[in-house]
Write a sequence for this structure.
């Protein structure tokens, strides 16, 4: 650890914090446009490095995942934020579509934030997304909660923030930096996780203008570097994407002293700390009249949520919640097994995966590894029939952060009663509040009526996605990404605060995405799509240029997938 170099970087940021806080918005937008161009310029080389580090063949569909989770999400979120900021710079409130604001029956305000453009409608037919505001926000206050730091008379306090980057997905750290710069007005030091620090040079190239002018710096190294930076007197705020254990070590310390401080809620730091810390992500499968085609589609949907990025995602499906008497329960699970068996095994590149896998499998004799373990490979694993009454089961209380997914069953005389029980189980038994998914047949949804939206409202999760993977809430950019509000340092669970949020809402409660029960062509994020590595680069180019002339190539590849 070169403390002198770290001190110099922090000093540079401190010297430029006031200049950034007071800079005219149009000048700030110029830096963001440069970062967008840079993101696309380095994309191919960045993805190649990630594919090599994860042991993937660049000519296979799995390689497309690093396009989707890296430059695509990064470019899209930055582009949408630029559009918001340009409207603010012109003296306007960020533009929402006509009729975007509605009031739910209980008085809560929901704002439609997707689709944003006609291209979105063409690419994501049938999808829509809302941000639900905190319950005390009135419809006439929505505009007041947008881009608050840019309101006339609002003074931004110059601050230096530290972002502790995640080691799994390429866009997390850079977009956390963008959030700190543009949503909070703070200059930023990004400390890369050792797992993916090979991405640092690409970030430095893409964000070169911000780095050149002293508004962004990067750091590398192990936990000792992170601890030094967290304790540094010139670091004002910290944002971490990682585990709750790392968060607690920062806030309370380690060992007996750290545990005592946490029990007594006595943080060892007074810095503001925001975070996104994972989840035991549920997939609630509402019973209904599913066809064979429905079962196949959602087996692929569930398998995608289990295995994307080798299972190293905070939004990976961790608990399938089924009705105990649903006649098609076995058929769905068999379809999931068959889908997993057809997928290539992945190298478990993230540290500790084998130990975590063994912990979960060792506690459940009924665990079903699908594929062979060995040579750094942790097989996809289904743990069926986990007793829902065992609230302390490791499957319910800890995130495995590898390709392990449990299945449990709950009673319910009909779909409505089951859904009510499932919401209660997720809220009261499962650890975390980051994201949840509900799979519900359209006829069942129609029969449920208002009770479906009531279930969504009662789920205490930062994102709730109907019929699809909650990673969409991370990827859409216009939605928020973060835990359900209300956590405290001594009960942190999935964290505090949100990122992405391109419309810059200041009072969001959760994001809700509604998607079709089945989609054709097969979505590019599905692990069964054979063209993902060909579709994703085209989508990145489309995000930069937003030209309809790019659409036919995307559609042609999608149909082949």
């Amino acid at each position: 650890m070169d403390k002198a170099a770290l001190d110099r970087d922090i000093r540079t940021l401190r010297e430029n914090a006031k200049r950034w806080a007071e800079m005219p918005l149009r000048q700030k937008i110029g830096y963001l446009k440069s970062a967008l161009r840079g993101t696309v310029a380095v994309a191919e080389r960045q993805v190649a490095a990630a594919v090599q580090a994860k042991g993937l063949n660049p000519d296979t569909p799995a390689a497309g995942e690093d396009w989707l989770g890296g430059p695509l999400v990064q470019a899209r979120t930055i582009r949408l934020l630029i559009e918001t900021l340009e409207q603010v710079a012109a003296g306007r409130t960020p533009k929402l579509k006509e009729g975007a604001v509605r009031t739910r029956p209980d008085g809560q305000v929901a704002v439609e934030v997707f689709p944003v453009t006609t291209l979105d409608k063409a690419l994501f037919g049938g999808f829509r997304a809302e941000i639900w505001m905190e319950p005390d926000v009135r419809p006439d206050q929505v505009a007041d909660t947008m881009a608050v730091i840019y309101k006339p008379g609002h003074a931004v306090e110059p601050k230096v923030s530290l972002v502790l980057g995640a080691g799994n997905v390429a866009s997390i750290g850079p977009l956390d930096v963008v959030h700190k710069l543009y949503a909070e007005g703070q200059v930023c030091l990004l400390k890369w996780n050792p797992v993916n620090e090979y991405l640092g040079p690409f970030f430095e190239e893409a964000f070169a203008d911000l780095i050149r002018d002293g508004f962004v710096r990067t750091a590398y190294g192990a936990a000792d570097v992170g601890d030094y930076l967290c304790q540094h007197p010139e670091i004002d705020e910290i944002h971490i994407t990682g585990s709750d254990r790392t968060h607690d070590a920062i806030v309370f310390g380690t060992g007996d002293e750290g545990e005592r401080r946490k029990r007594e809620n006595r943080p060892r730091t007074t810095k503001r700390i925001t975070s996104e810390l994972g989840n035991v992500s549920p997939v609630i499968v509402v019973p209904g009249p599913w066809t064979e085609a429905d079962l196949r589609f959602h087996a692929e949907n569930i398998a995608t949520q289990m295995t994307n990025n080798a299972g190293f995602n905070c939004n990976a499906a961790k608990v399938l919640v089924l009705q105990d008497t649903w006649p098609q329960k076995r058929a769905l699970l068999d379809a999931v097994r068959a889908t997993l068996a057809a997928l290539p095994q992945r190298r478990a590149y993230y540290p500790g995966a084998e130990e975590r896998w063994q912990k979960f499998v060792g506690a459940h004799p009924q665990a079903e590894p699908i594929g062979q373990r060995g040579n750094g490979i942790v097989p996809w694993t289904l743990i069926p029939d986990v007793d829902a009454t065992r609230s302390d089961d490791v499957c319910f209380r800890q995130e495995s952060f590898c390709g392990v997914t449990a299945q449990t069953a709950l009673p319910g005389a009909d779909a409505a009663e089951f859904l009510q029980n499932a919401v209660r189980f997720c809220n009261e038994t499962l650890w975390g509040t980051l994201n949840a998914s509900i799979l519900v047949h359209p006829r069942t949804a129609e029969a449920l009526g208002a009770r479906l939206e009531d279930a969504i409202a009662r789920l205490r999760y930062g994102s709730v996605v109907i019929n699809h993977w909650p990673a969409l809430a991370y990827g859409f950019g216009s939605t928020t990404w973060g835990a359900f509000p209300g956590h405290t340092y001594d009960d942190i669970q999935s964290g505090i605060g949100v990122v992405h949020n391109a419309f810059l809402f200041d009072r969001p409660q959760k994001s809700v995405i509604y998607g079709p029960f089945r989609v054709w062509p097969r979505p590019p994020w599905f692990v069964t799509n054979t063209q993902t590595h060909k579709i994703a680069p085209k989508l990145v180019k489309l995000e930069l240029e937003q030209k309809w002339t790019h659409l036919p190539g995307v559609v042609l590849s999608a149909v082949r997938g």
